[in-house]
Amino acid sequence: MGFWRRFAVMAIKPPLTVFTRRTWSGFEHVPQTGPVIIVVNHISHADTVAVAHYVYDSGRWPQFMIKGSVFKVPVLGNLMHRWQQIPVERGTTDAARALEASVAVIEAGGAVVIYPEGSTTKEPDLWPMRGKTGAARLALATGAPVVPLVSWGAQKIFDPRTKKWRVRPRTPVTLAAGPPVDLSRWAGQPPTSPVLNEMTTEIMNRLREMISELRGEPAPPIWSPSSAAKADSKAEEPS
Q1: Does residue 224 have a pLDDT over 90?
Q2: 165, 151, 166: which is closest to 207 by C-alpha?
Q3: Domain segments of the chain: what residues?
Q4: Where do runs of H (alpha helix) occur along the chain?
Q5: Exposure on the CB side of residue 182, measured as CA atoms within 13 A
Q6: Which residue positions does the secretion signal occupy (predicted)?
Q7: CA dist., res. 187 & res. 42, Å (int)
Q8: Angle between helices 193-215 and 134-142 in degrees, nearest 10
C-alpha cells in the first residue's frame, strides 16, 4: 500500500469505527480487481469518509474525483495528492484533465469514485438531484463497469440543510452497493449530449431506486435547481 495510503487508513478508519454504526451490504458487487467506476449519491460532507471506508473495506483503494479547491487547502491538498485523489476544476478548460486523469486510473485497473450530482444534494429531503455527465463520459471512454453505491445516515453527522455538525459515537450509517448499471446499449457510441444525458439518467434512476429501497419510501420526481425555481415562480403567480 505504501506509507501514505497506510497513513490515511490509520488516520481515518479508527475514528469512523468509533463514531459510526455501520450497516453495509453489497460488497460482492465491487470487483476485487480490474477497473471500476463507483457512483454514489451525495447527502453530506461527512459521507465522503464513510464511502472511502466502505470502498477500502471492499478491497479497493478509492480514488475520488474531488473539486479542485480542496487541493488548494494547506496540508489537506498535499495529502489529497499523496492519496492519489483526482482534482476537478469545474467550469474551466482544466476540467478535461480530470477526465484524462480518471481514464488513466481506470486503464491502470483502479477504482474511481464519482458523485454524479457534482455536489451535495440541494433537494430538501436529500433525494438525489439531476446528475452531471462526468460518470457517463468516463464509462463511455473506458467501458469500465459502473457500480452504484447508495448511502444514508451521514446527514446525521453533518446536515447540509442546517450546516450543523453532530458528532456522536455510533451514529447509524448505511451503505449498499448494487449490480453494475447496464449501459451496454450505448457502448461504442460517440459522446454526444443526447447519449451522455441518457446514460446519466440511467445511472441516476438506479441510484434513486436503491436509495428509495434503503429509505423505505418512494422517490419523488427528480429535482434540479431549475425545476425548483420554476415551481417557486408558479407558486408566486396570481390566481
Answers
A1: no
A2: 151
A3: 3-221
A4: 3-19, 47-57, 76-82, 95-107, 134-142, 193-215, 225-236
A5: 1
A6: none
A7: 27
A8: 110
pLDDT at 161 over 80: yes
Q: How confident is the model over 70-128, as pLDDT tens digits?
A: 999 999 999 999 999 999 876 656 667 888 999 999 999 999 999 999 999 999 999 99
Query: What's the pTM value of the predicted model, to 2 decimals?
Result: 0.90
Which residues make Cβ contacts (< 8 Å) with residue 211, sequence separation at least 6?
41, 127, 128, 150, 152, 219
Q: Which long-range contacts (CB under 8 A, 24 or more apart) does 227-231 make?
A: 228/122
Is 3-221 in CATH node 3.30.1160.10? no
Cross-sheet strand order for the sheet of 36-40? 20-25, 171-177, 146-152, 36-40, 111-114, 62-67, 86-88
Q: Which residue has the cell 430538501?
A: 124
Query: Of the candidates 235, 239, 219, which has an alpha carbon nearest to the alpha carbon of residue 227?
Result: 235
Burial class (CB in 10 A: 0-12, 13-18, 19+), 173: buried
Spatial contact of 31 and 48, defined as CB atoms under 8 Å apart: no
Q: Answer yes or no: are the C-beta atoms of 198 and 186 closer than 8 Å.
A: yes
